[in-house]
Amino acid sequence: MKRSTILLALMASLGAGASSALAASPVSSAAVASNSAGAQQFKLSNGMGLIVQPDKRAPTAVHMVWVRVGSMDEVDGRSGLAHALEHMMFKGTATVAPGDFSRKVAALGGQDNAFTNRDYTGYYQQIPSGKLEDVMRLESDRFANNQWPDSEFKKEIEVIKEERRMRTDDNPRASLMEQLNAATWQASPYHRPVIGWMGDLDSMHPDDARQFHQAWYVPENAVVVVAGDVDVDKVRALAEKYYGSIPARALPERKPRPEPLQKGERRLDYKAPAEQAYVVMSFKVPDLRNLVEPKDSDKDAMALLMLGSVLSGYDGARLDRQLTQGANRVADATFSGSSVVNRGPSTFLLGGVPSQGKTAKDVETALRAEVARVAKDGVGEGELERVRTQWQASTVYERDSVFGQANDLGSNWALGLPLDTNDKLLSLMKTVTAAQVQAVAARYFGDDQMTVATLVPQPLTDADRAAQKRSGAAAKDGAVH
C-alpha cells in the first residue's frame, strides 16, 4: 500500500502496548491530536476513534474503518480467522442481504474493498463526498450487526481455500516465505500465515468467525478515518450518530507472547516445481517503538531502515550494482529491507534469485558479503542523503492522494503511531549517521539470529506451469476479498 521501499518497510506492520491511550471525550470536545497536514483525531463517546483529514481539491471522500486485529490475534488451530471474517463482513446484516454491500456502494457512485494482514484489518469506500453519510450508515451497520447464515460461510470458506491455493500453494516463492516465517518465529504469532493453514481452513466453523467478530470488533479497538472534501464538524456529528451509538464492550486480554532468543542458525530447503532457485535470509532486529524519545534500539531500527534502502532502495543501489550487473553477476534479482514497525517482532530480509550457472549459495554468500562490506567500509553521506530525499518525496506523493492520506492515517493508528508519524520519521532519519549504519551492519547479521530458506527447484509439468500462471495473475490482480 506504500509507494517506496523505505515506506513499505516503515509501515509493514508497533506493539499494542505502544499505542497511546486517549481519554474518552464527547463529540463536542476538542481534537485529542492533530498534525501539520490538517488531520484531527477525536474520541467518540463509546471509545471509538475518529480521524478526519480535510482535502478540498476534488468532491470526493475516502471512508475507512480500521480494526486493530489481524492474524497475530488468532490462536493455533484457528489460523486465518481474521481474514475469513473480513470476507464474511460482506455477507450481510439484518437489513443488507449477502453481497449487497458492494452493490449499494457502487450505486452511490463509489468503490469499496478490504484487507487483512498480521496486525490489522481495514475496510474502505471511495465515494462522492455527498454520499459520506450513506456509507457511514452501511459500514457502521455491518461493524455492529454483521450476520449471515451458515450456508454463506460454507460457500465463502471454499473461496478462501482457492485463494490460498492460487496465491500460496501454487506460488513457490510465496510458499517459501510462508515456510521462512514459520521457521523464524516460534512463540510469536507471526509464525502463522495470514490466510491460514489449509488444515485450519478445513476445520473452521461459522461460529469461529462469529466469536472472533464478537471479541475484537468493539469500538475501543477501531477507528473511523475520513479524508477528502468534508467538513470536520459535520463528520464528527455523523460519526457520533452512526458509530458512537454502538455499545462499548471490553476487549479480550492480549498476551505479549515474546519470542525467545534464537541461539543458532536455522536453515530449511523447500522443494517445489520452479524454473529458478530462490534464497531468503531473515535476521532478527530491534523494533522501532518510540518516535518522540528514541532509545538506542529505536536508533538502531532507524539505521537498519537506512541500510535496507542503501542496499536496494533505488535503481543502481548496491545490491543491484554489485550482484545483478556485469560479466560476473551472480543474481537475476535481489532485495533487502527491514520491517521494524509492527505490533510484533521485527526482521531484516536479504534475498535473491541466482543467475544462470550460479547457485542459491552463491547468492547468499554475495548478499552477506555486501553487508559485511558496509560493516567494514561504511556508507557515503551521499547514499544516505538519497534515501532521505526519497522518503521526503514519497511522503509528498502520498499526501497528493486522498486514499493515500486516509490509508496512511489508518495504518499509523493501527500500529500505535501518532498522526505526525511521517514528520517524526523524517526528523529521525536526518539524525542517522553513516557511523550508525555501519554499526548496525556489523551488529545484527551474524549466524545466530539468522534463518535461511532456499527454494530447491523441482521439474515443472504443464499443469504446474498453468497453476503458477494463474497464481501470478491473481497476485497481479491484487483483489483482497
TrEMBL record:
Keywords recorded for this protein, A-Z: Signal
Keyword Endoplasmic reticulum: no
Any single Pfam family the record assigns to this protein: Peptidase_M16
Signal peptide residues on this chain, from the entry's feature table: 1-23
GO molecular-function terms, A-Z: metal ion binding
InterPro entries reported for this sequence: Metalloenz_LuxS/M16, MPP/UQCRC_Complex, Pept_M16_N, Peptidase_M16_C
All residue ranges annotated as the Peptidase M16 C-terminal domain in the record: 206-390
Record's keyword annotation contains DNA repair: no
Domain Peptidase M16 N-terminal: 55-195
Family annotation (SUPFAM superfamilies): LuxS/MPP-like metallohydrolase (SSF63411)
Listed transmembrane segments: none
Family: Belongs to the peptidase M16 family.
Name used for this protein in its record: Insulinase family protein
Organism expressing this protein natively: Comamonas piscis
Upper lineage: Bacteria, Pseudomonadati, Pseudomonadota, Betaproteobacteria, Burkholderiales
